[in-house]
Design goal:
With 123 residues, the protein is of the alpha+beta class. Helices cover 24% and strands 43% of the residues. It contains two helices and nine strands, in the order αββββββαβββ. The strands form two sheets. The protein has a five-stranded mixed beta sheet. Strands 3-2-5-6 form a four-stranded antiparallel beta sheet. Strand 7 and strand 8 form a beta hairpin. The longest helix has 22 residues. The chain is elongated.
Length: 123
């Protein structure tokens, strides 16, 4: 009997976590914060299923949602993983908001638009 109760608790807990992941809408922004006015930043974001430019989405049932962006500026090129459900579900939990700031020194992440942490350089 105790095993059945534990199983039921675990089962409903897992269902709750999956529904939290699957039905929350996330917003991802990639912002040009380069000081260069003469050379444009070219950004192209996509998932396995969609090409997007500005995006809001819900995590799929399996929790495997993934968006990545190619970034080109002058002679530099870099792919970033803009959203990976297993990594960013908790990271972007505050208002379901993820922001990427592209700068000369690299790519900075924020979930509150005030505190930015460098995640990657251009190289």
């Amino acid at each position: 009997m105790k095993a059945a109760i534990r199983f039921s608790f675990l089962f409903f807990h897992v269902l709750y976590l999956i529904s939290t992941l699957a039905f929350a809408k996330y917003h991802v922004h990639v912002v040009n914060n380069l000081q260069d006015d003469h050379n444009p930043l070219l950004v192209h974001c996509k998932s396995k299923d969609d090409d997007v430019y500005s995006f809001a989405f819900e995590i799929n049932f399996w929790g495997t949602t993934l968006f990545f962006c190619s970034n080109k500026w002058v002679e530099k090129f870099k792919y970033i993983v803009a959203f990976k459900a297993i990594r960013d579900h908790g990271k972007c939990a505050y208002k379901h908001y993820c922001m990427w700031s592209v700068r000369e020194a690299g790519f900075y992440f924020s979930n509150d638009n005030f505190t930015f942490i460098k995640e990657s350089s251009w190289t």
